[in-house]
Amino acid sequence: MSDHVAQSAISMTVETLCGEPTIVSQNAVSTNFRPLANVLRGARLAVVRGLVENVRNHGAEVVQPLSEPAASSLGRFAAAVPVFGPSRAIHGVKLQFGDGNDTAPSTAGYEWELEVAGGLPPRLHLTSAGLDLLAVAEDQRDRAVYGPLDMYSSVAQLADVVRMWENVNHAQPGYAEQGTFVLRIPDEGNQETLRVIHFAERYVETSAGPRIRGLMEDITCAAAITATRLALFDATVGRQVLAEAGAYGAIIDHRVIHAPTVLRWLTPWVPGIGHGVSTGQMPGFHPDEYARFPEMVERSAHGPVRDSVRVRRAGGGWMRMRFTATHIDPIAAPTIAVAVIVPDENQAG
Fold this sequence. Notes:
By secondary structure, the protein is an alpha+beta fold. The protein has helices at about 35-40, 40-60, 70-75, 130-135, 150, 160-170, 225-230, 235-245, 295-300; strands spanning about 10-15, 20-25, 30-35, 60-65, 75-85, 90-100, 105-115, 125, 175-185, 190-205, 210-220, 250-255, 260-265, 305-310, 320-330, 335-345. Among the domains are: about 10-105, Beta-Lactamase (2-Layer Sandwich), CATH 3.30.450; about 230-349, Beta-Lactamase (2-Layer Sandwich), CATH 3.30.450.20.
């Protein structure tokens, strides 16, 4: 046994958000916040525990050779990399074991600010690694503060968007969640790349107030991409129907009546609208429109709402848009609606 070396790389993601470190994924498979000692034994446990503590104490990458008996099951080399969140807190540690030439999956930290001044919706904070993982375009990274649209803009399945957003809005002490979602990322030639993201997040109390802190990692290489594409057929058809009709579609949350929030566009954005005004953090509507929103919400309880509003134009000024808004499921998500939008450039802002 002494000269046996592991034949394939072993990858682990350990979260360090709340007391005892837990393993949230191993070889791109979710392990559901399992304590180290529940997954590992003996020399393997000692190596992993030591690497995690080293990274937590020093905030720096650790690379070291392994000796027996750990090398027999883990490999000849170990690498442990801190995963920082936007506030520079260490959200977790990415561990890679093997022959020293293996590449660990891309991993990033993120944070939701839950109590925002003015009663605004939760505010998202991302690292540059997080922006890369979510495929946020370079020309949309001009802000220090982000919102749900930035997190969910490329998420393929609407059920994932609603579930994750509801979790953020209802998180309480003790909340912890893991899951996966699929991103659709446009590329050249009118094609799309699918990226499968695994996430693990917890509610934490900080000196600046309550937060949800999390880790996300790219597990695309481990996903069944063909089956994933088949699962997205409904979303693809809906998007094409809207495009052929010359309309635009968005999923909107109106739970904060003075800051309605676009969660995701079903189509490309309406031409001329500014990308920063729909995150729930900036006023995207003309000031006179806000007084009309409570009445619109009341009408929505009785069926689709057909109306028009003035929204902020990129570069300044206002543009009017006609829309029809309908609640998707008043029981499962009573504040979330789909809006079909037609810009009306012939009307004055």
